[in-house]
User: Fold Vitamin K epoxide reductase domain-containing protein from Herpetosiphon gulosus.
Amino acid sequence: MDERPDWPRMAMAFLALGGLINSSYLTIHRLRPTQSAPLVCGVVGNCEAVQASKYSVFPPTNGIPVAYIGFVGFLLLLVLSVLSLQRSQLGRFSLPTINLVLASGGLAFSAYLTAIEAWVLHEWCQWCIISAVVAVLFWALAGFDWWQARRLTATEQLDPANATAV
Assistant:
């Protein structure tokens, strides 16, 4: 039986849902640019300039829109987070490990995009900042959940009740 607390995985699912909503807004705007109102950007930055830059696709200039990558990434993290509330394995793979690996990739990609905003574009997009914050928080929770799973596995291996006579 899995003795890990549920709250990190519940929080991961909630964060992934928030990231999915955030990326959905950018995806819809990307799919229907002429029929959508300009991006709402609040008091911080220039979202339209960031979204119109060559870095709004990956690889730059001739790639997949970053909004689509975020949408698919957050959808995958949401599904895996909800699934991890029910089980600890996906086939022979550990769900905490899968979540941490995907969260690490998402965090690295988010750091790359944030660096582009800061040092190349000199413009900020509040939706991108929200996505980056969600990526950091998700990664921290995935790391904690992974650590809990590893700790539990190590404890079970040391438990004499689990030992078998040879």
Q: What stands out?
A: The domain at 7-160 is CATH 1.20.1440.130 (de novo design (two linked rop proteins)). The first strand starts at residue 57 and ends at 58. The chain has one domain: 7-160. The chain has a mean pLDDT of 90.
